[in-house]
């Protein structure tokens, strides 16, 4: 099997057609979609990783909480259609009803607007067994058909991987940029680099990198130890010239609040002060 | 927005056409693909979760190691095209070359055959930016175009979610069944239930459930504590009538071996004795 010069993947023949970012469809990328008529969003920031289970959803939610505490109008768009987490973290439950003006997101206890496929399902554990292009289309509808009203910040929680949904979000939403989440394993580092390179190929700025799960504190003796070896977050940030935003330990208390739908009660100075300050510093428009 | 009776997701109009499992295409599901001419596989077992980052790849690899130690011919097929982990865990590196007979998988130090998209790439951190249907097609090629030779067990490491790749694997590979991996968070439990329900819809048996990351042992004081709250693995197993195969703690030593490409050196009685015994017990054919 020969290397295919288009994609470097070696799966000759498979990489043709409209399925790849290098194809004609992608070169003449679709126009950005217009947000819902009754809505606006000054800043749209997506949280990505490439790797699953590194805490994208909790980082997305904590970012939203941090900005909300500073008084901004904030929304979160759950772009993980087959593994949606945000309603559970914020303790909101559907199903929601549509109106002639579009779908109305649910509001969390502090007033963060939440939209997720799970808010449209009768049962939260019902699977969404859809092929990728449809997944991307639904995420587009969460932008065009949801009455967000006027937001200062919309945070988009991406699924793992570099497939349909991240591609559709990059092509069709007016992103200010990405926050990248990594974890200390070398394996995660490799996969996160794929996501960073995808953002570069698509010309979307990366606003910063957060290393999650960098260690854990023993509740008995107070010892902080590494769960997954030494982290590489700062190293990756340096090598790609990305701002390193900080490290987060695994905190059983955060897991507990997430399971209870009370993530807004979690106190993290990183998200309350440091990160909003860092992102606001870029001229108010991220 | 009205509920769509086909899928229960409420995104009216979006669920039509060939993208959903309920569509005509899926009802008349494609024939199973024939394995490569020079190969056979007595048992094909996929490892799934729905949720990312719960350890599907390490469970897949440890299963493979457990069966290999018992003397079986074993292969691992990395179906996670946008987040491939297996080459790193087994310490094998591409790029591999094709032959007129197909692609030859690489062999790990104990003789496990490994196939992954990363073995076809020049650089392991290069992203694969493809839409879903293509991802499913490549996984099919890993079955039809790879010279596995004669295997007793082929383990398939699925990506997170319930989208294209799990769907294609379920439709086109002759699976004996799934091993489901969960982690203790309630959030993971909800998403894992989606995956279990997908397997049920597709009529694929679930051979057992493993709860990963069920706790961690402090290296200083030896205290074992819960990282993510109490697990729900046994409860989920019972409610779906699935065999509960066991719990695995987070083990920094396993992470280290994974990062070094030496997962085969990891000792786990669960995988060396217990699980092969359990799966063999089903009449030798899983």
TrEMBL record, chains A, B:
Keywords: ATP-binding, Hydrolase, Iron, Iron-sulfur, Metal-binding, Nucleotide-binding. Pfam families: ParA. One of its GO terms (molecular function) is 4 iron, 4 sulfur cluster binding. The keyword Transcription does not apply. ATP binds at residues 50-57. InterPro entries: Mrp/NBP35_ATP-bd, NUBPL-like, P-loop_NTPase, YlxH/NBP35. Gene3D superfamilies: P-loop containing nucleotide triphosphate hydrolases. Homodimer. Binds and transfers iron-sulfur (Fe-S) clusters to target apoproteins. Can hydrolyze ATP. Belongs to the Mrp/NBP35 ATP-binding proteins family. This is Iron-sulfur cluster carrier protein. It comes from Pelotomaculum propionicicum. The lineage of its organism: Bacteria, Bacillati, Bacillota, Clostridia, Eubacteriales.
């Amino acid at each position: 099997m020969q290397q295919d010069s288009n994609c470097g993947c070696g799966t000759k023949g498979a990489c043709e057609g409209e399925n790849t970012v290098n194809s004609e469809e992608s070169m003449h990328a679709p126009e950005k979609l217009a947000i819902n008529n009754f809505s606006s969003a000054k800043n749209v920031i997506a949280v990505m990783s490439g790797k699953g289970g590194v805490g994208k959803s909790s980082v997305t939610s904590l970012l939203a909480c941090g900005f909300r505490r500073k008084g901004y109008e904030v929304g979160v768009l759950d772009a993980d259609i087959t593994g949606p987490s945000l309603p559970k973290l914020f303790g909101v439950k559907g199903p929601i009803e549509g109106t002639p003006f579009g779908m109305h997101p649910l509001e969390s206890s502090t007033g963060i607007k939440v939209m997720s496929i799970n808010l449209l399902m009768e049962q939260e554990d019902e699977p969404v067994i859809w092929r990728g292009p449809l997944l991307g289309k639904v995420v587009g509808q969460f932008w065009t058909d949801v009455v967000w009203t006027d937001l200062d910040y919309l945070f988009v929680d991406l699924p793992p991987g570099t497939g349909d949904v991240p591609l559709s979000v990059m092509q069709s939403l007016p992103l200010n940029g990405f926050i990248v989440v990594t974890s200390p394993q070398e394996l995660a580092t490799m996969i996160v680099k794929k996501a960073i390179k995808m953002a570069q190929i698509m010309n979307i700025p990366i606003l910063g990198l957060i290393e999650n799960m960098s260690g854990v504190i023993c509740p008995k003796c107070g010892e902080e130890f590494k769960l997954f070896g030494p982290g590489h977050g700062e190293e990756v940030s340096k090598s790609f010239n990305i701002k390193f935003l900080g490290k987060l330990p695994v905190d059983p208390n955060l897991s507990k609040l997430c399971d209870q739908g009370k993530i807004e009660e979690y106190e993290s100075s990183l998200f309350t002060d440091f990160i909003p300050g860092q992102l606001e510093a870029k001229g108010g428009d991220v």
